[in-house]
Amino acid sequence: MGVCITGIGIVSAIGMSVEENLNALREGKTGIGPLHYLRGTKAQLAGEVKASNDDLRASLGVGTGYVSRTSLLGLQAAREAWGDNKRSGVIRTGIISATSVGGMDRSEVFYKDYLAQNSPDYQLLTTHDSGSTTERIARELGITGYIDTLSTACSSGVNAIMLGARLILQGTLDRVLVGGSDALSGFTIDGFRSLMIYDDQWCRPFDDSRAGLNLGEGAGFLLLEGEKSLELTGNKPICNVSGWANAADAYHQTASSPDGKGATLAIQNAISRAGIGLDQISYVNAHGTGTKNNDHSESVALQNVFGDRVPPFSSTKAFTGHTLAAAGAIEAVFSVLAIQHNLIFPNLNYRTPIAETGLVPATRLETGAEVNAVLSNSFGFGGNNSSLVLTKYE
Amino acid sequence: MSKPALYISAASTISHQPTFRNAGFSETLGPVEASSALISPDYKAYIDAGLLRRMSKILRMSVACAKDCVEQAGSGQPDAIVVGTGLGCLQDTEKFLNTSLTVEGLLPPTSFIQSTHNTMAGQISLSLGNHGYNMTHTQNTLSFEHALLDAAMLLREGDRNVLVGAADEHIDILNDIAVQLAFEATAPLTSAASFFILSDEHTGNAAAALADLFTSGATDNAQEEIDAFLDRNGLQPGDIDLALYAGKPVSGVARNIDYLPLAGVYPTASAFAMHYAVDVLSENSKVRNVLICNTLRKSNLGLILLQAVEA
């Protein structure tokens, strides 16, 4: 039976729920555009969630203003994934969230006033640390006990799912809500601009002319349950978390190696952990940020593993923007949707193959083929490479 | 449920105290002074000079402790690297925040690159050339315990040696923030890093065994959870020769020591306590069971049970 996914939740630039996200993916409708809610940044385009903090607080019933956007987005997705499930004295339940910026969206408001000596509100800093983001979500859902946060830059979301699956298999937990959340901030926009990998135009993953990423924001959560929990909740499994792996590239603090070493290891080990053949992977949801470096390195890794039989693949980042720590979780939810509805999502904005590798992603919504197993990749700063294999529940 | 013990085959700490490469330090340590500073080793012995120049305090401490551990254990390349940090790379975070709010035009990217929480784990993997599992946990005052729990799971999944540790760095603004938020620190705010090699078997040089560990977030009954933890390990409070605590002493144990005055206050100070415990266990054969009880933040409980290695 293994580790089952029984609930999913998502908020991103293309929608406030699983249903809205699925519709946008089917219609090929991007959420990337000029920023409306976050003001004063240098970004031309980003994947902003179409709701203000006040809107989110009101709809989630969160009273205090001392809450980060990262927590609010996380809570929105976590609530949807949690659904009508109840707290239980018998089912050992935990929560693992992933975040890269934590409460930076609040901290930068504080710090601006602090520098200007304009009576800064120190209370804003109580939401700064990443752990507090998860503690806030746990508190709102009434989850106590195992509460953990991972922060491995852009691979964090996949790592949260992987850790959750391991905790269930080791018998430490019976069910665990896993996911990731990150809000847009001036800090990260300036950061990626300083690295000169923020495209002022709409990002073009896997295209030869790609010139960088557009940041996005959002959250994805999945409810994982083991056998004991399923017996007690009676929940119906949607998919299995079958394979996972994490490997270090150990090449450079931010850049990926040209030979895709870490990525190759992560993909290979995840598929081997899933115990399926390479030819059984129906679809690859690629990391595909749209930077020169990532898309090249990831293409090389895909060819290292699959040779000339690379499965249909696409990056969905031209829909959502790169949501950093949330990306792995959001894309895991997309992968679940691919399996549930037998879909392969289009890689928007692709025209010309990358000269060195020649790989061609899926560019149209494909509805004809059965999707039984999906590989989802997330690679990050610090050479953190993680891959996940989700399979249809049999 | 009793699981086989795991072994701590190396420990290394850089702190405001003379802890680095100083076996027996636990016998002479006094409270950390408010005026104290980080006691830095000669980092050039551990880190390439070019890299060193760009590294913040937390990166230097972490890479040096990690390398020292690998050298002490003599077991070669660790299978995995797991790091816990409460607040991450504050120095670079503040620096980039400052630059991005005050500088127009193109910004230097180094402090942004080094601001992510996983920079320590990433830099350690780079400096060791390690391609294994690489993870960073950040759960407030329980960040170290979560990293240790992950490391213990990896050993039960088949890894042999895991490098696990924690680090946090102090920056000046923290003092101001502590005052403004009325955070009553019982000791000075400090910086430190502690790393360990956790192994699945005793290869002769292990100083202590990690018998069990447990975390609980948003807890409202710490005492009940402590009792249940000891009970699962077949122990009574009276069997604990030494409890190292932050927050509240543990009732019924032979001896209690508040580790915050020794380590100073930072989110992962329980990692300092673990090195202290390892040092006590290797110096004093009368001590068999040490419990680290971390309630630095009242609603978060971390428990680590260490035992003397059977000869």
From TrEMBL, chain A:
One of its GO terms (cellular component) is cytosol. Residues 1-392 form the Ketosynthase family 3 (KS3) domain. One of its GO terms (molecular function) is 3-oxoacyl-[acyl-carrier-protein] synthase activity. InterPro entries: Beta-ketoacyl_synthase, Ketoacyl_synth_AS, Ketoacyl_synth_C, Ketoacyl_synth_N, PKS_Beta-ketoAc_synthase_dom, Thiolase-like. It comes from the Bacteria. GO terms for biological process: fatty acid biosynthetic process. Keywords: Transferase. PANTHER family: 3-OXOACYL-[ACYL-CARRIER-PROTEIN] SYNTHASE, MITOCHONDRIAL (PTHR11712:SF336), POLYKETIDE SYNTHASE-RELATED (PTHR11712). Belongs to the thiolase-like superfamily. Beta-ketoacyl-ACP synthases family. This is 3-oxoacyl-[acyl-carrier-protein] synthase-1. It comes from Dyadobacter soli. The lineage of its organism: Bacteria, Pseudomonadati, Bacteroidota, Cytophagia, Cytophagales.
From TrEMBL, chain B:
Gene3D superfamilies: 3.40.47.10. Pfam families: Ketoacyl-synt_2 (PF13723). GO terms for molecular function: acyltransferase activity. It comes from the Bacteria. Residues 49-172 form the Beta-ketoacyl synthase-like N-terminal domain. This is Beta-ketoacyl synthase, N-terminal domain. It comes from Dyadobacter soli.
